[in-house]
Amino acid sequence: YTEKQLHQTACWENVNHRQARVALSFDFPFYGHYLRQITIATGGFIFTGDITHRMLTTTQYIAPLMANFDPSYSKESTVQYLDNGEVFVVQWEHVRIPGKESVGGFTFQVALYKTGTITFSYRDIPLSVDVISSAEHPVKAGLSDAFMVMSPSSQSADLPRQMIYEYHRVEIDVTKITNYSAVEFTPLPTCLLHDSCELCLSASQTSGCSWCHVLQRCSDGMDRHRQEWLDYACAEESQGATFPDVKTDSSTKSVGFANTGLIAGLASALVLLLALILVSLYISYHPSAVSPLYLIQRRKSYWPSLKFQKQESGYTEVEGGGHEKDSIVEAGPC
């Protein structure tokens, strides 16, 4: 694509708040699930979950560079997005970090392609990312997805609680993020791709898949449909399933999903069985890298600037001492 072709089919829009819910013009496949809405955050990431909760920075994100960016510092700071029907691009331009404003602005972007490919592109990285403090906001780059389930009731709680569990994460070495560098993620086939029992159980490009006749769905049990997989006893229906299942009988209610060893097992199994993301990292110090940097090198007339008013962050989710919560987090109101 070229800059001219993109602007013929779509216009750039500004993000006016710390978070902006945006509808995509196409179905974007993410971990085998097709997304039509995402949430853009000024903190350098996209939230991909359906339910907005207190832990946006912990699970279900696409983060080219997550940090405590403050677009209100300068009128030159903007967060904009473009959708031309084939690719959805978000660009953070001249955004600065509180307390580090003098080092200059960061300019980078993420592109979500209709094929499922994701690219991160970096133009201006004035400060080594590994020295940015995470005391006020998590600092990381990569992908994460999670599922939400109802935890079993206990004597201390009258009603079951909704719990969010991160089942996979891809992390980028932040020391590799430099000026004019790029990262590309290529999706692998997932069990959810198969729409028949025969394909589900015989396909060579996926493994660990089981067919649930009640739901008419192929899965390994580790995806956003986890609750349905449990509710309809799909794991019991699938004889000889190789994926580990989370039991919810009375003997396990006391520990449930909070068991750290179990979560570690789920994560390990997913790395082996869930066809997720094949990461190919390409670091280039040339502006013509294979990434949508052409969008960064754009004409000023196409990009209206936007002033941001200072306001409290609505999504910073850091525990005391600057440490993030574990991968098991409870959903709650914003």
From TrEMBL:
Gene3D superfamilies: ligand-binding face of the semaphorins, domain 2
Pfam family, one: PSI
Alphabetized InterPro entries for the sequence: Plexin_repeat, PLXDC
Domain of life: Eukaryota
Transmembrane segments: 262-283
Topological relation to the membrane, as annotated: Single-pass type I membrane protein
Location of the protein in the cell: Membrane
Gene Ontology CC terms: membrane
Keywords for this protein: Glycoprotein, Membrane, Signal, Transmembrane, Transmembrane helix
Similarity comment: Belongs to the plexin family.
Protein name, per record: Plexin domain containing 1
Species the sequence originates in: Astatotilapia calliptera (Eastern happy)
Upper lineage: Eukaryota, Metazoa, Chordata, Craniata, Vertebrata
